[in-house]
Please model this.
Amino acid sequence: MKAFRCRVCDKPLHFENSRCVSCGSRLGFSRSERAIVPVDEKGRYVDADGLEWFLCRNLTLSGCTWLTESDGGECFSCGLTRNRPHDDDAIGLANYPAAERAKRHLVVELDGLGFPIVGKDTDPDNGLAFDLLSSVEENVVIGHANGLITIDLAESRAAHREEVREKLGEPYRTMLGHFRHEIGHYYEWQLVRGELRTRYRELFGDESVDYQGEIDRHYAEGPPAGWESSYISSYATMHPFEDFAETWAHYLHICDSIETASEYGLTTVGTITSFTSFRDVVVGIWMPLSVALNMINRSMGHEDLYPFVIPTAVLDKLEFVASLARRD
Ligand SMILES: [Zn+2]
Ligand SMILES: [Zn+2]
Ligand SMILES: [Zn+2]
Model:
């Protein structure tokens, strides 16, 4: 994530700031400028071309600070949400902002990496939409199907997340992580076509094997012995679809964390674009950086920031995922 600055007073801002704490200016996020811009007290911003922008109508509902072209309308990110908790669902609404915040973070990263994002309102067949559902009164299964991503809003609550994480023996579980994993399923569906499937199968295996059968096997028998030398996580061993989505999520974890580190002067060996292969980015920047960040977390008594070891086989998988960026 970029390190933003206030255009009025030049003091540092953080993504999602709705007001500058230094000069008090009201702020909005412009997706087209990839910048936080000042808005007037009516929430209006006029860009360099004279185009008028307005704060998204969901500022009070979900803390959205993004700009939209229509007064009283929804921003691009909010527009991707097909279903959200009803206005009378107090628990669902309390858990809702964290999911929208993670989605906005995801959209900004995908924009930066050059992955196309098209909503189902524009392309009903190949577009993307989100159901952000509260599992208080119904069972919600997190997943992706034909461009529709479903997220369980109970995952916004740390206590719930930690309980599930421990039960499943996972080293890491976050709302942003869910979005990154599920969007991986979407982009596999959209981008891994034609001759790319051959290389995909060499790396991840044959995705046509029975999905439910493989999931049942995983939960009955656990991951295969020695999985650590070929997979980024135990979850990735379940099925090629899950291996790809897990690898994809790590690609996004790594790209975003390196960008943030370089924006704040924590890396000295260059940025992602100064390397010709993603493998070299991981070995040259991410591995030493993530070890240092883990040690900083330990200094504060926290668990490791990045509780994963990346084996050589996963470097090849990450290289494949990185190669999907800006193909068309
Ligand atoms: Zn300011
Ligand atoms: Zn919005
Ligand atoms: Zn999955």
